[in-house]
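Q: I have 244 residues here and want to know how they pack in 3D. Can you give me a structure?
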Amino acid sequence: MIDVHCHILPALDDGALDTGDAVAMARQAASDGILTVCATPHIRHDHDVVIGELAARVATLGGELTRRGIDVEIVTGGEVAEMALSGLSDDELTSISLGGGGRWILVEPAPGPLGRSLDAAVDDLRRRGFRSVIAHPERHAHGELDRHLAALVERGALVQVTAAMLEHEHAAPVIVRLAEQGLVHLLGSDSHSSHAGRPLKLSAGFAALREVAALRPYVDWMAVEAPRAVLAGADVDPQFAVSL
């Protein structure tokens, strides 16, 4: 499995506290069968993340995991706030594309219902040669969420939900409904620490999706093929059509 959304880089944003915490997160990933983790620190005004330093930070953490015999690959990425996108150069966006593939950008919607500014951000990224992965829409379950996501998918975006929320009594029905409508393509842990909060695990989320008969034929695609293509910067052809 591949985790496309994780705050594993130590002492940076609101993610791993230190190297020990990041190593413990990687051990969680390994025990869950996750082979690759995208390090996606927050790129927004309230976190002092220097994009030019991220590749070196990823390499340093990867070297530490190798030294400790932890077979988890750390690759580059970023969780970019929708309002921050216009202030980033194409080179900066390329350097924080998921997996360094140069194409797919993990976009964090503004708080509250999805708005027209997100549509504009997705359109602008596409004009610049990038594509969008919309992060954790289950946090924005207001108003016309389903129709808004469908419109974004029509624009070429993919949708990533949080694996742990498939075990949450209120969020899980929302995610399953979206998935049944063809509006979920990727799972991410959105893990921030080994000490508390969401664990760096995906398997339980995929197991929950397999319990839904309509989704069962597509889960392997969501777990392996889709994230692999995203990291490679390739086209992603959803295996199920949007159906509202």
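Q: Anything worth noting?
A: The chain has eight helices and nine strands. The chain has a mean pLDDT of 95.
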